[in-house]
Amino acid sequence: MSQVPEAISGLINDLCADDEFRRIQAAFGLGVLGELAVDPLIELLASPEQELRKRAAWVLGVIGAPALPSLLHMVEGDDVAMRIEAIRVLGVVGEARALNQLLVGLTDRDAHVAARAARALGKIGDPRAYHPLVTAMRHPEPDVRYEACRAIIDLHVPDAVMALRDVAENDTGVTSWGAAVSESALRAIAELDNSLSSPDHDAEFSRASEIVQQAENPES
After folding, report:
1. Taking Cα atoms as reference points, which of 66, 1, 72, 3 lies closest to residue 37?
2. Domains in the chain and their CATH numbers?
3. InterPro entries, from UniProt (predicted)?
4. Which residue from 14, 17, 103, 157 has the highest number of Cβ atoms inside 10 Å of its Cβ?
């Protein structure tokens, strides 16, 4: 065990290297180490280099559940950039246990955090996020509304079509990268309509509707 810190340090250095083969081998090794590698990888999420942050985030996503406590702690921190990185990784991990923190992130005062939380909620795909995402479709910032429209597709809730249609018809907002919010809503409607027409949609959508109803009526 005394060699573990040195081994991790070496792998972290290799993950930062220019050589692609070394980076691949390091990512695999850190993923195998699992929880032991979480803290050094969390530190890399603060790197000023975007590519390095992406590598660390990918490995944390591979590690999965053991990384959750550290990531959830980061979401509650004061550093906006770190909150965004943590939320992004939570979406990759895809754990429903992160749902509450991501819902809080959806209401964050920083629009970048809220938009990233919306995207992560879509990746997790838990129908309990349906109503918060519908609310986020009326967020003051177009970036958040755009991401909420994208995310709600993966929740597989048929009622979302009505909410999306309202956005498609009335939202004139444009995101910071120049995309129309209404176009995001239209694409989401098309994807949901396609899912509804697929042969195996019935059980999936019935289950999603049941979860949403339970959230609305917890005593039933």
Report:
1. 66
2. 64-216 (1.25.10.10)
3. ARM-like, ARM-type_fold, PBS_lyase_HEAT
4. 157
Residues found in the chain: 220
Q: Does the pLDDT value for residue 1 go beyond 50?
A: no
Contact 141, 115 (CB under 8 A): yes
Residue 156 contacts residue 191 (beta carbons within 8 Å)? no
Collapsing DSSP to helix, strand or coil, 138 comes out as coil
The DSSP output letter for 220 is -
Q: Please name every residue paired with 174 in a beta bridge, in sequence order, or none if there are none.
A: 180
Cite the DSSP H helix spans in the chain.
4-15, 20-33, 38-44, 50-63, 68-75, 80-93, 99-106, 111-124, 130-136, 142-152, 160-170, 181-196, 201-216
CA-CA distances (angstroms) from residue 56 to 30, 31, 115, 206, 218?
10, 10, 21, 38, 39
Least reliable range by pLDDT among 10-24, 66-80, 116-130, 136-150: 66-80
Q: Give the DSSP per-residue string, 74-130.
A: HHTSS-HHHHHHHHHHHHHHT-GGGHHHHHHHHT-SSHHHHHHHHHHHHHHT-GGGH
* 169, 150 Cβ separation under 8 angstroms: no
- pTM equals 0.70
Contact predicate 152/188, CB 8 Å? yes
